[in-house]
């Protein structure tokens, strides 16, 4: 089978499309014929060799955590899913023709495989950081870097829970944020003052790692009311860095329920072929994403 892999840490150019042995589902796992894989910032952070305790890496390594596809192998002890079922979920080395998943859910009706591949890690992260930052219904949550996949999910899930949201993004994505129910403003000089003009901020999330931790602490008045998923230096300011996943099966079940009720939609901004994985990583790292990027297999 074809699989994207890297044998050394570095830039996107270390990625190679190789011929590899097919993986097989172990106990409690399934294997899918991959139709699409999600492109997440954690993918290129791992490839660069960033120290991420939740994702120790042994070289050579495959790439990718999220995928959607068709079940073609069911491991021992697994029930409720059969060969031929369309599923989306999280596993390892998902930029490949076949991948093993450790957590999955049946794809909601009406989703394409490319759309479904964009949800697993994104929704898990959104649910986790909303919980960790402790924001409650009736309060206001500021989301820095709100137009990407996690931001898109956070805005919609928070609004569903009765939380007011303020989002920052580039000028081209202001209408997109408003369409998700957020009060929107742009990055750049004076952004914190623009946020103050939109109202009180009770809690804040840093999703882009663009050097805004100090301002987020000032806006909330308390580093304990700020969580970052993108700035590894955040703890130096007393801010929690969230990098360890919670319950992925729970997140997938909630994602499927929200999608089925029409309460969650994350658009696919761009789809890439397996041969274009390096370009997908370069684009993801550059930011300014509206929704998700995926690899179509």
Automatic annotation (TrEMBL):
PROSITE patterns per the UniProt record, alphabetical: QOR_ZETA_CRYSTAL (PS01162)
Subcellular location: Cytoplasm
Gene3D superfamilies (UniProt xref): Medium-chain alcohol dehydrogenases, catalytic domain (3.90.180.10), NAD(P)-binding Rossmann-like Domain (3.40.50.720)
InterPro entries: ADH-like_N (IPR013154), ER (IPR020843), GroES-like_sf (IPR011032), NAD(P)-bd_dom_sf (IPR036291), Quin_OxRdtase/zeta-crystal_CS (IPR002364), Zinc-ADH_QOR/CCCR (IPR051603)
SMART domains attached to this UniProt entry: PKS_ER
Record bears the keyword rRNA-binding: no
Keywords in alphabetical order: Cytoplasm, NADP, RNA-binding
Record-annotated Enoyl reductase (ER) domain positions: 10-295
Domain of life: Bacteria
Subunit structure: Homotetramer.
Identification of the protein by name: Oxidoreductase
Taxonomic source organism: Streptomyces globisporus
